[in-house]
Amino acid sequence: TLYERYPGIFDAGGLLNIGSCVSNSHISGAAIKIASIFAKRPLRANYEEIADYIYNRVGAVGVAWGAMSQKAASIAAGFWRLGVPVIVGPHGSKYRRMLLGRKEREEDWYVYDARTGRRVYVGPVPEHLFYAAETLEEAMVMVAKLCMRPNDTSKGRAIKLTHYIDLHKRYYGTLPEDLPLYVRRESDIPFTMRSEILKVLKAAGWEEGKIETPDPTLLERLIRRRA
Predict the structure, then answer these.
(1) Which secondary structure element, helix H or strand E, spans residue 64, and what is its range?
(2) How far apart are CA 53 and CA 127, in angstroms?
(3) What is the pLDDT of residues 32-90, one digit of tens each?
(4) Are 173 and 149 spatial neighbours (Cβ–Cβ below 8 Å)?
(5) What is the pLDDT of residue 22?
(6) 63, 139 contact by CB (below 8 A)
(7) DSSP code of 17?
(8) Dist CA 146 CA 141 (whole Å)
(9) Rounded mean pLDDT, 8-16
(10) What is the Cα–Cα distance from 194 to 178, expressed in whole angstroms?
(11) Which among 49, 55, 179, 224 is most buried, taking Cβ atoms within 10 Å?
(12) Where are the alpha helices (DSSP H) in the chain?
């Protein structure tokens, strides 16, 4: 079984059945604990700051596949309001609400750098918060894409790009057209695809350094020093 093939650990490659759908609070709780444990963010009466941390730093994505129900809608809403993107299946239109980003609108993708107070461009990461996929293949590609965050290290972004490109090639047969929006500098490029990707970036007029790697936040009060 899948549970025999994969360990039940909170780490890459782990698979865990936490119970019925009402047990989803354990999953969102794990994301909240990341902000508490790693960033020492207080949890009491601090929802805004926790959601900001998760949205900008925690590469989590939720998938709610299957029939639409009020229970599924409330679970999905509980995740995207925490800053975790959610993908629903072909019944997505029944939710009567999508939270879609427009990656071509550069002005929508600015955050504050908490170190300096400057507003910097970080690219469409994550591009959507609530997205309906028509097929399983589309959902798998979108999961890999929505894992990217403004705070990714070069190694982390390279791993995420590897997954995104591999899945896009497998199911669509081509490199992603929006690749230049996710490569910040050459060190982000997966080593095994370097020459192929550099050709695409050059043809698209990509500039190294245009997309920055800040200490990201959407909250002005978290800026430590003004520019």
Answers:
(1) strand 62-64
(2) 16
(3) 999 999 989 999 999 999 999 999 999 999 998 888 888 888 999 999 999 999 999 98
(4) no
(5) 78
(6) yes
(7) -
(8) 9
(9) 85
(10) 16
(11) 55
(12) 2-5, 25-39, 47-57, 70-80, 136-146, 154-172, 194-203
Q: For residue 111, which phi and psi values (nearest 5 degrees)?
A: -130, 170
* Domains of the chain, each with CATH number or no CATH: 2-222 (3.40.50)
> Which residues on neighbouring strands pair with residue 112, listed in sequence order?
119, 217
Q: φ, ψ for residue 153 (rounded to 5)?
A: -75, 170
Whole-angstrom Cα distance, residue 187 to residue 18?
37
CA-to-CA distance for 5 and 144, rounded, in angstroms? 22
Contact 109, 124 (CB under 8 A): yes
**Could you count the other beta carbons within 10 Å of the beta carbon of residue 12?**
6
Task: Convert the pLDDT of each residue in 106-141 to its tens digit.
Answer: 999 999 999 999 999 999 999 999 999 999 999 999
Q: What is the DSSP string of 122-159?
A: --SSS--SEEE-SSHHHHHHHHHHHT--TT--HHHHHH
Map tokens 């730093």 to a residue.
57
